[in-house]
What we know:
Layout: H1 16-37, H2 50-78, H3 84-123, H4 130-136, H5 163-186, H6 190-222, H7 229-261, H8 271-296
Helix pairs in contact: 1-2, 3-7, 3-8, 5-6, 5-8, 6-7, 7-8
Amino acid sequence: xxxxxxxxxxxxxxxxxxxxxxxxxxxxxxxxxxxxxxxxxxxxxxxxxxxxxxxxxxxxxxxxxxxxxxxxxxxxxxxxxxxxxxxxxxxxxxxxxxxxxxxxxxxxxxxxxxxxxxxxxxxxxxxxxxxxxxxxxxxxxxxxxxxxxxxxxxxxxxxxxxxxxxxxxxxxxxxxxxxxxxxxxxxxxxxxxxxxxxxxxxxxxxxxxxxxxxxxxxxxxxxxxxxxxxxxxxxxxxxxxxxxxxxxxxxxxxxxxxxxxxxxxxxxxxxxxxxxxxxxxxxxxxxxxxxxxxxxx
Length: 297
């Protein structure tokens, strides 16, 4: 491979940033409208379907923009147009992206901690919350998980040692197989690289399948739904968003597998693989925190 250029590479004018901003705006408006029209307080158009129309358009638009934008980026990399300084920029960009994702989950974990260690004791009459207890819910008993909703419905907590523990083993194992795949890529051992990457993908998709099974079990047998009070809300908020991130990570690794099969990545030019691996390991670490806090504690 030719030596990388030393000057900073400035790409040609591209329509993708502007168009991506537009579809992100459409997605945000569509998502807000969809939530509103399904919460009984629709502020959308007369027939209440604006969210159902805009949200799918926005999601499809994001996927299309990602394909077109990343296609151009891949071409630049294959043509060795990126300088060493550009490589540093890519790494910094991915690190800041992962940091933003850390803050994303930190907000949700913070909401869970606030409910468990502040709101629930106050409602139970602890500290200065005695009056709050009497006025809002006199019969409330401070416990976690909350298995009785304000409406009187009952639910059951999701135990840690069934499907959640199996999924923990799957994700931890996938981190090892992905690390082995990375080492094989560095050593130019193509067979081990493809084998370990396929194993990582299988483990990831099995995780998603078992999470769907867990949700079905929660809804049909435990009475654990999105309407099951604050416990149900926080449970599905944290596990659902994590499942979405596992899906994104699996898509990223699938793209890496396709690029490896097409010979795009080499032992000395494979930051795309490293970025996807960083993201996957981040998702695994989040799950370990989630398993302890949501399922075990």
